[in-house]
Amino acid sequence: MRWLGIGVPEYFEKRLKASEDILEASVNLSLELFNFLYKYGLAKGVSIGANVESISARKVEIEASLRLLDGIKKIIKRANFSYRN
User: Fold this and answer.
1) In this model, does residue 83 exceed pLDDT 70?
2) Which tens digits make up the pLDDT trace of 8-59?
3) Nearest residue to 71 via CA among 41, 16, 40, 29
4) What residues contact 56, with CB distance under 8 A and at least 6 apart?
5) What is the pTM of this model?
6) Taking CA 33 as the corner, what is the angle to CA 1 and CA 13, rounded to the nearest 5 degrees?
7) How many Å apart are CA 84 and CA 21, to the nearest integer?
8) DSSP notation for the chain
9) CB atoms within 10 A of CB 39
């Protein structure tokens, strides 16, 4: 991600490198971060969005981006439902 100009905190990098499946760990970490940011935004009245795209031709990475998108959709649906109640 550094070659894209994205800074990654050292502890995130260590967590990813220590995982058995770096792609799955990346999806899970991204979902954890989006979940936190989205709920924080709701609480503060700030809109939070996400852009998910795959720049890879590898099927496994394209499928991971689709899982990420599905996970983000679920987070939004759950948070909006619980926020209204």
Assistant:
1) no
2) 888 888 998 999 999 999 999 999 999 999 999 999 999 998 999 888 889 9
3) 29
4) 62
5) 0.83
6) 40
7) 37
8) -GGGT----HHHHHHHHHSS-HHHHHHHHHHHHHHHHHHHHHHHT-------------HHHHHHHHHHHHHHHHHHHHHHHHHH-
9) 16
Collect all residues with Cβ–Cβ distance below 8 Å to 17 and sequence separation of at least 6: none
Q: State the residue for tokens 């792609």.
A: 23
23 in Cβ contact with 56 (< 8 Å): no
Q: Which two tokens stand for residue 27?
A: 């999806």
Q: Under a CB-based contact definition with an 8 Å cutoff, are residues 74 and 34 in contact?
A: no
C-alpha pair distances (Å), 78 with each of 18, 38, 41, 74: 30, 11, 14, 6
User: Rounded to 5 degrees, what angle do the CA atoms 45, 51, 56 make?
Assistant: 160
Q: What is the mean pLDDT of residues 75-83?
A: 80
